[in-house]
Structure formats: structure tokens, C-alpha cells
Amino acid sequence: MSFDLAIVAESLPRLLEGLTLTLALIAMSLAGGALLAGPAAWLLMRPSPWLRGPARVYVWAFRGTPALVQLFVIYYGLAQFEWLRATAAWGVLREPFWCCVLAFSLNSGAYTAEILRGAIAGVPAEQAEAARALGLSPARIFRLVLWPQALRLALPPYGNEVVGMIKTSALASTVTLAEVTGVAETIAAETFAPYEVFLSAAIIYLALSSAAERAIAAIECRRAWPC
Amino acid sequence: MADVEYVNIAKKYGAVEVMRGLSLRIEHGEFAVLLGPSGCGKTTLLRMTAGLETITEGELRIGGARMNETHPRDRDIAMVFQNYALYPTMKVWENIGFSLEVKKLPKKDVRARVEEAAEMLNLTPYLDRYPRELSGGQRQRVAMGRAMVRDAKVFLFDEPLSNLDAKLRAQMRVEIRQLHDRLGATTVYVTHDQIEAMTMADKIVLMNAGRIEQIGSPDEVYDRPMSRYVADFIGTPGMNFIEGAFESGSGGLAFVAAGIRLPLPAGAPVAPRGGVVCGLRPADLKLDPAGGIHGALSLTEKTGADEHLHVSVQGRDLVAVAPRHALDRAARSVTLSIAPDKAHYFDAGDGARLF
């Protein structure tokens, strides 16, 4: 068995074309996840079981099942509902890209909600009490005292979530999207050199993950949050 | 005037009552120490004062005004927490000035007051540092500075020295007391350390299981503990306790226990009876060849300035404090005496002081 560097050199430019789609998927899924995570984390911390319950079920379901299964349920499953196909939403949900964004956002939202809940709970109670004694309203206590510290605590686990999402994005290839892994599958089928092609794809994912880790570390070490 | 008054305070967590019928008055400008073991209710009382805990029954008054339902910010109090509760994302000057910035004071005024507090607390070189870059003592000072700039009428301290090492604790005790004297505010200070209480307080409030055992000056609680509990809690080394009885003999009324006979002071308001506990402070026991307490020397602890002698009297261990080198190194037995008016007598049942 020989390792053909020429195939790697040939594959990389084509794989990089798929990178645009991969980056769009990652960015939109993380953004969607973050939008879902805020309210979900808030609900998780409510004393009322009526508020807390639905959020806990959501987090439990999406953390407890594989992202691939979630993607298939949304991509293949939603088409079964005639009433959905009759709505304007179907114009979006029939597209594999938007199905991926929805599935990955829901998945990321569940993990991020739990990260935020843990981070907020991780800020010592005395911090809020000291602020209360200083006369701050609950909203200002959250904004000025709890949130900056919770963010600091949430960053390392959220870094893991970002790296996880980079890797999860590869699942989009299973629903016909030509992102990095999808393009790699096509090239491998053409060249019969899966080793070189998928190794090239792995290098791209490694570079993305490393860049994400460095970015998170840089944010952690900003002067505002001394590390 | 910022006197603090607690009137029949009760506190319940669900069905569990942790405090009942507690009444106490702290005068304006007084340094009052709430002293007691973990779980005795002292921190709960402090938190109720701050408004961080609700009052189940009774009334809290600050400066004569009822405060039960008043928001913490409107109570004119400043609190220093056990773990300092400094904001790690803010520099020292931001931490100290935070409450002023929240009040929307002009930046210039905030900076001036922060610098004044920093000067007083020797924090000027550290104003641009983050809390993580400070030592324990410096963090403690920042927490005090944050309280100081508020110009509050009442200062509340919740075990502020418990995270510091012994040497720093001693230094900070002096600094906190000096700060109190300079500011003249009313101070309520919670601790479980009786040395802190004795060295800092104008008034000690000794608590036990949600009740007040005794209120008094450090001298009063040391010289005249009103219960065995107080006597046991105050003083280092701890008081020696001996069970015995009051008996009358040729020399008048005396406390008698195995191997010990202590004459009672003339006119002692007691009659012969059993069920008596005698309390002897180690510092009051003197080496005296003519004394009435004979025992075997089981251990000598050298503390530098003096020596703690562990003396076994008929199987009972007593501790006495003696000047260093007062005892021959080869000594195997000692004889001790105590002035009759230095002994404390308590009821063996309820622990109440007899005289």
C-alpha cells in the first residue's frame, strides 16, 4: 500500500470548497443553539416545576440521543406530517441545509443550556448577596455581577461544545450536503483513495478545532477576565 | 443614632425553629461580637440584620426604625463576607467603588472616595490589581474598603478572618478594631473564635442553639460566666471542671471532691448540697507547696512565655498555667492552690452559675 501525496494535494482545494458550507453550518448552528440556550438555562433555574419541567425534558432528550438520530428524525421524519408540508415552513424545512441547522441548533442548545446553568450556579452565592446588600436590583445583579463571572466559568466547557459542533457538522454529509465530509466522500468514490482523502479532511477539521480552541483561550485570557 | 435592636426575634426554616425569643440591643458606636459555635444562629442573626434572610417573628430596629421589610439597600448597612465576595472580573478600585458607581455618583467623586479608603487601608499600590493578584490579608482589606466607602451607619462582619493564617488574623484584628474606632460606626461582628471576641469586642453576645447565653463585656464574660457553657467557651486553655459538693467542716463551708478541698469565700450565698461543678481557670491555679490540690505531673506543654502543666488529681486531668522554668525539670508531682474568689461554681444539672 502506498501513500499518494499527489491525491492529498489535489483533494485539498476541492475540500476547501466544502469548507464554506461547513463554516456556515457551524456558525448558524452555534448561533441557534446559543439563542435557545439562554431561555432554556433560565427555565432550568426556575423554582416552578411547570417552567423547569419542559426545559429539563428538552435538555434530557437532546443530550441523551445521538445527533445523527436527531438529524434523521428531522430530515426524514418531518416529511411525514402533511399539515407541515402545507405550511410556508416546509419551503425551508425541505432543504437539507436548514434541517441540519435546526437539528444541530437543538442539540447545541441543550448542551449549552446545561453549561450556562452550571456556570451561573457555580458563581458563589455570596457574590449575589453582596450585590443585594449594596442595593442592586435582581436584573442588575445578574448583568453586572453574575453574568460576567458565569461567562468566565462557561467558556472552557463552551469551547468543548464548539469543537464538538465542528465534528458534528460532518453528519450533514448523511443528508446529501456537500460540506467537507460530503466532498471527501465524493472524491474518495472517484479516486478510490479513501485514506488520503479522509486524512485531508481530518487535517481540515483539526485546523478548525485548533483555531476554535485558540480563539476560546484568547477570549478567556482577555484583560477583562484575567486568567 | 444607629443603635441596633432585636425584639423577640424568631426564625423558622419550614417547621424547624432555629431561633426563638431573642432580644438584644447594640448601642450606637458599639463593637458587638456575636460569638458561638457553628450552627448557634449567629450568622443567621447577622443575615437577618442585613436583610438577606427574612425574620419569622419579632422586630429588628436600626436607629429606632423597624427594618423587617426594608430592602437591604435602604438599611444603611455595609457587610463584609467570610469569603470577601470580591468581584474577580473587577480591579481593586472597581471593587471598592462598585456601590458608588451603582448609585451613579460622578466618576471624580467615586475615585476620590476610593483613594481615601485605599489610603486608610494601605491599598493604594494595589488599586489596579485584580483580587486574584492579592494576598488573603489584602483581599480582606479590599472587602473592608468596599464597605467603608458606603458611609454606612452599621457595619456587619461575617467571620471575616476565618480564612487567614494565625499571624495575619492577629494583625487584622487590630486593623479592624482601629478602623471601627476611627469611623465610629456601630459594628456587629460574627465569629466562633473567642480570642477574636475577647480582643475586639466592647460587648460579647455569647450564643448557643439560637439562644443568648450571656451578654457582657469581655471582662464580664471571662470573670463572671453565667453558665458552665459560657465558662467552657471562654478562655484559653479551657476551664477545668470538677464535680463535687458543698460541705461544711471545721474551717467553714468548702467545695469537696476526690483529692480536692477548696474553702468557699466568706459569706458565700450557698448551703451544703451536692450536684455542684467547680470551674477553675488554668491561669488562676498557682504553684504553691501549701496548696490544697496535689497531683502527678503528666505533661508539660511549653508555649514560650509560659508552660501548661497537665496535672492528674486522682485520675482527673487538670491544666494549670505556670511561668516558664517555675518547675524543677525533674518534678514528678505538683501542689496547686487557688484564691477562693477565683473559683466558679455551677449547678451540675442545668449548668447555671451558683455564685
Automatic annotation (TrEMBL), chain A:
Residue ranges constituting the ABC transmembrane type-1 domain according to the UniProt record: 19-216
Biological process terms in GO annotation: amino acid transport
Molecular function (Gene Ontology), one example: transmembrane transporter activity
Chief place where the protein resides: membrane
GO cellular component terms, semicolon-separated: ATP-binding cassette (ABC) transporter complex
Transmembrane segments: 20-45, 57-78
Signal peptide: none
Protein topology in the membrane: Multi-pass membrane protein
Subcellular location(s) per record: Cell inner membrane; Cell membrane
Keywords: Amino-acid transport, Cell membrane, Membrane, Transmembrane, Transmembrane helix, Transport
CDD domains the UniProt entry points to: TM_PBP2
Similarity-based family: Belongs to the binding-protein-dependent transport system permease family. HisMQ subfamily.
NCBIfam families: HEQRo_perm_3TM
Cited function: Part of the binding-protein-dependent transport system for glutamine; probably responsible for the translocation of the substrate across the membrane.
Protein name in UniProt: Amino acid ABC transporter membrane protein 2, PAAT family
Taxonomic classification: Bacteria, Pseudomonadati, Pseudomonadota, Alphaproteobacteria, Rhodobacterales
Automatic annotation (TrEMBL), chain B:
GO biological process: carbohydrate transport
InterPro entries named among the record's database cross-references: AAA+_ATPase, ABC_transporter-like_ATP-bd, ABC_transporter-like_CS, ABC_transpr_MalK-like, ABC_transpr_MalK/UgpC-like, Mo/tungstate-bd_C_term_dom, NA-bd_OB-fold, OB_MalK-like
GO cellular component terms given for this protein: ATP-binding cassette (ABC) transporter complex, substrate-binding subunit-containing
PROSITE patterns: ABC_TRANSPORTER_1, ABC_TRANSPORTER_2
PANTHER family in alphabetical order: MALTODEXTRIN IMPORT ATP-BINDING PROTEIN MSMX (PTHR43875), OSMOPROTECTIVE COMPOUNDS UPTAKE ATP-BINDING PROTEIN GGTA (PTHR43875:SF1)
Membership in a protein family: Belongs to the ABC transporter superfamily.
Annotated protein name in UniProt: Carbohydrate ABC transporter ATP-binding protein, CUT1 family
